[in-house]
């Protein structure tokens, strides 16, 4: 006795399309290459800073090492940091701790865009508000019981897209779980400082 079975070939998944500014095909191809050559995932980012005056300094970022070689950014980026007048500065730029909030927000936001694009979700809006509470008694050396940095950071995200709210929340949570800046802030990282005093 013979049976006529219809064999359905496996459905070949089409490559994801670019979505909301993310080159999703290149992102997925990069992940595939790195899975096969793990050393390509090792990067070193660099920044050079120079004091200007008072609490004002300027940082230059122009190149980095990664994916097996040296790379230059499309242009050198320059960022000024300072303190506001109430903290004896001249307000030429955000304070370093404000840059830290920016780093956390932008890292999680970039991850949200990438993760959504790979999952086929089109985003229409992503906004975040970050707040950091700091007691300056620590920096001022007034109390050994008060830490120098933030005591707490709060981040609130608003996300809209063509997926149900639970899917959008999962995208934000996945980005938080993979954020390099969140990892550094919550797990710590050794910081080595060398000094050339003349």
Q: What is the strand tally? A: 6
Number of domains: 2
Main beta sheet strand tally, sense and closure: 4 strands, antiparallel
Query: What is the third-level CATH name, the topology of the largest domain?
Result: GMP Synthetase, Chain A, domain 3
Poorly predicted regions: none
Sheet/helix structural class: alpha+beta
The CATH superfamily of the largest domain is known as K homology (KH) domain
- In the CATH classification, which architecture of the largest domain applies? 2-Layer Sandwich
Overall geometry: globular
At the first level of CATH, the class of the largest domain is Alpha Beta
Determine the N-to-C terminus distance.
Answer: 94 Å
What is the CA-based Rg, rounded? 23 Å
Kindly state the percentage of residues in helix. Answer: 25-40%
Total DSSP helices: 4
Instruction: Give the SSE order as H and E letters.
Output: HEEEEHEEHH
Report the average pLDDT across residues. Answer: 92
Report the portion of residues in β strands.
25-35%
Can you tag this structure with a few keywords?
6 strands, 4 helices, globular, alpha+beta, two-stranded antiparallel ribbon, 2 domains, 198 residues, GMP Synthetase, Chain A, domain 3, 4-stranded antiparallel beta sheet
Your description of this structure?
The model has no long low-confidence stretch (mean pLDDT 92). This protein has helices at residues 24-36, 96-118, 165-178, 180-187, and strands at residues 44-45, 48-53, 56-66, 69-81, 123-133, 152-161. It has two domains: 42-93, no CATH class; 95-187, K homology (KH) domain (GMP Synthetase, Chain A, domain 3). Helix 2 (96-118) crosses helix 3 (165-178). Strands 1, 2, 3 and 4 form a four-stranded antiparallel beta sheet that branches. A hairpin with a 2-residue loop joins strand 3 and strand 4 (69-81). With 198 residues, the protein is of the alpha+beta class. The longest helix has 23 residues, at 96-118. The protein contains four helices and six strands.
